[in-house]
Design goal:
Layout lengths: L3 E4 L4 E4 L7 E6 L10 H19 L3 E6 L6 H10 L3 H16 L17 H13 L3 E4 L2 E4 L36 E6 L14 E3 L1 H13 L3 E7 L3 H16 L4 E7 L2 E3 L2 E2 L10 H6 L7 H13 L7 E2 L4 H20 L10 H20 L4 H21 L3 H15 L9 H5 L10 H18 L3 H13 L3 E4 L5 E4 L1
Parallel strand pairs: 3-4, 3-9, 9-10, 11-13
Antiparallel strand pairs: 1-2, 5-6, 6-7, 7-8, 11-12, 14-15
Helix pairs in contact: 2-3, 4-5, 4-6, 5-6, 8-9, 9-11, 10-11, 10-12, 14-15
Length: about 475
C-alpha cells in the first residue's frame, strides 16, 4: 500500500505511514449542535467518511473518532431563544444530525465523544498547563500563553508577530497578550457550570477537542481532520495546548476539506447563505426515495476534490442524478440474462475490469482523488456498453456488476438496487395514445441523431425530460423509455 495524503502540516503530499502498521487512528472535529447541519457540514462529514472507508478497504484497521461540541455559547444562545434547557438543544440537534446524515450514507465513527462527557479530561489538561506555566488564571478564567509556545503558527503558516485575534478568540483587555486564548471560562449568572480549581465554569472550544482526542487516541495519533476554516485558530491552538501538555507530537497528518460556496462565497450560517441538508432532501427535484437523493448529493460532493472549494447551484443534484443514472442503467442491463447468450466480449471485459481496478486504486491512493475515481467508473461504463453490443456471457455480466458494487462501496455509491433507483415502471400498450406520441418523438430523435443533427436530437430529448420520460440508449442502437 502506498497512499499519499496532502498534509497541511508539511504543505505537501506525504507518504502515509501510520504509527502502528496496518492500524490508523483518526480524529475529526465534529459539529457544534445548536442548529440543523448545512451542506458544508455534509461535505466535511463525507470527506472523512470516504477517507475512513477507503483506508479500511485498503486493509487498515481504523479507529475513527468524531466529536460533538455539546456546550458552547451558540448552544446557550439558542436555548435562551427557544426557552428550553441548553442540553435539550444539544440532544435535539445531535438526533437531527443522524437523521440528515443517514440518507447520505455517512457511517458512524468508532467513537463519538461529547465535550460534557470528558469534563474531567478537560480539567486535567487545563490544570496541567497551569502547573507547567503555559497558562494563567484571571478571576476564574484560564488562558493559554501563546508566546510561551515557540512553535505557534507552524500549522497555519502564520507569523506570530503578524497574527491578530481571530473570529473565535475573545477580546479581553485583562489578557497578557491579545493572542492568548481561553482554556476555561467562569460561568456567568444562569449559565451551566462545572466545578474546577478556579470556580464554576466551562471549557473553551479549543481545549475540548484536545482533551477528547488525547483521551480517545493517546497523545500522538495519525490523522486529524476538519474544514479548512478550522486551521486557524482552532487547530493551531489544539497543537499548542496539546504539545505543551504532553510534551509529544500531536497529530502527524493534518487533513482539511474545502468550502461549499454559494455565488463564490463560503456557505455559512453567519452569512445566511446556507442550504440545510434537510431542506435539500425535502425539496429535492429528484424523483424517488430519500436514499436516492442522498446518493445524488454524495456524488455531487465527491465530484470535486475534497481540498478544493465547490459551488452549489440548482443544477447540482439533477446533474449528479443524470451521471449516476447512466451507471445504474448499465447495471440494470447487465442484470438482464440473455437467452441467446453470446460471449464475444468476455475477453475484453476481463481486461477492462483489470484496467479499472488499477485506475481506481491509483486515483484514491493519490490523496483520495474521488473526481478521478468517478471518471474511472464512467470510463468503465463506456467500455462495458461497447462490449455489451458484442455480447457478454452472464458470468462476465456478473463480474462487471460485482466490480461496480465492490469499488463503489468505499466511496459510498452504487449501493441501491437498480429497480429502486429507477422506480417501478408502468407498462403502456402500443395502442395507448400517450405511448404512440412518445414513440414518435423517439423515432424523430433517432433519425436526427443518424443525420448528426444533434441540436434537434437534444431538443427532442429536452421535451421528453419535461414530460418526465427517461430514455435509455442501448448499445444495439435501440432506445428504451419509461416514465
Amino acid at each position: 500500500m502506498s497512499i499519499t495524503i496532502y498534509n497541511t502540516k508539511t504543505k505537501k503530499k506525504d507518504l502515509f505511514a501510520p504509527l502502528i502498521p496496518e492500524q490508523v487512528s483518526m480524529y475529526v472535529c465534529g459539529v457544534t449542535v445548536y442548529d440543523d447541519c448545512h451542506l458544508g457540514h455534509a461535505r466535511s462529514a463525507l470527506t472523512f467518511d470516504v477517507i475512513r472507508c477507503y483506508l479500511e478497504f485498503s486493509g487498515y484497521q481504523v479507529t475513527y473518532v468524531r466529536n460533538f461540541t455539546d456546550i458552547d455559547d451558540k448552544i446557550l444562545n439558542r436555548a435562551e431563544k427557544d426557552g428550553v434547557a441548553w442540553n435539550e438543544i444539544s440532544e435535539r440537534y445531535i438526533q437531527n444530525f443522524y437523521r440528515d446524515m443517514g440518507p447520505l450514507g455517512i457511517t458512524k465513527p468508532t467513537a463519538e465523544p461529547r465535550a460534557t462527557e470528558h469534563m474531567q479530561d478537560i480539567l486535567h489538561m487545563v490544570e496541567g498547563l497551569v502547573n507547567k506555566g503555559m497558562a494563567y488564571q484571571l478571576e476564574g478564567d484560564v488562558y493559554f500563553s501563546v508566546k510561551k509556545f515557540s512553535a505557534y503558527g507552524q500549522l497555519s503558516g502564520k507569523n506570530l508577530e503578524e497574527l491578530q485575534a481571530g473570529a473565535r478568540v475573545e477580546v479581553d483587555i485583562r489578557k497578557q497578550d491579545p493572542m492568548d486564548f481561553a482554556l476555561w471560562k467562569a460561568s456567568k449568572s444562569g449559565e451551566p457550570g462545572w466545578d474546577s480549581p478556579w470556580g464554576k465554569g466551562r471549557p473553551g472550544w479549543h481545549i475540548e477537542c484536545s482533551a477528547m482526542s488525547v483521551a480517545e487516541l493517546g497523545p500522538t495519533f495519525d490523522i486529524h481532520g476538519g474544514g479548512k476554516d478550522l486551521i486557524f485558530p482552532h487547530h493551531e491552538n489544539e497543537v499548542a495546548q496539546s504539545c505543551a501538555f504532553t510534551g509529544k507530537e500531536f497529530a502527524r497528518y493534518w487533513v482539511h476539506n474545502g468550502f461549499v460556496t454559494v455565488d463564490k462565497e463560503k456557505m455559512s450560517k453567519s452569512l445566511g447563505n446556507f442550504f440545510t441538508i434537510r431542506a435539500i432532501l425535502d425539496k429535492s427535484p429528484i424523483a424517488g426515495p430519500e436514499a436516492k437523493t442522498g446518493e445524488c448529493l454524495r456524488y455531487y460532493l465527491l465530484s470535486t476534490h475534497y481540498r478544493s472549494d465547490l459551488n452549489f447551484s440548482e443544477q447540482s443534484l439533477p446533474e449528479a442524478n443524470a451521471a449516476l443514472a447512466t451507471i445504474y442503467g448499465l447495471i440494470r442491463r447487465l442484470e438482464e440474462s440473455d437467452s441467446q447468450e453470446s460471449n464475444q466480449g468476455d475477453e475484453g471485459c476481463e481486461q477492462v475490469l483489470k484496467e479499472f481496478v488499477k485506475n481506481f486504486q491509483e486515483s484514491m491512493d493519490d490523496d483520495f482523488n474521488t473526481p478521478k475515481a468517478l471518471a474511472a467508473f464512467h470510463d468503465l461504463r463506456a467500455k462495458i456498453n461497447t462490449l455489451l453490443a458484442k455480447g457478454l456471457s452472464d458470468k462476465a455480466k456478473g463480474n462487471a456488476i460485482e466490480i461496480f458494487r465492490k469499488f463503489g462501496e468505499p466511496i459510498g455509491l452504487f449501493n441501491i438496487s437498480s429497480d429502486v433507483w429507477f422506480g417501478t415502471t408502468r407498462e403502456i400498450s402500443a395502442s395507448d395514445e400517450f405511448s404512440i406520441g412518445i414513440e414518435t418523438k423517439i423515432k424523430l430523435r433517432n433519425e436526427a441523431r443518424a443525420k448528426k443533427d444533434f441540436s434537434t436530437a437534444d431538443k427532442i430529448r429536452q421535451e421528453l425530460d419535461k414530460m418526465k420520460i427517461i430514455l435509455e440508449d442501448r448499445p444495439d442502437g435501440t432506445t428504451r423509455w419509461k416514465r
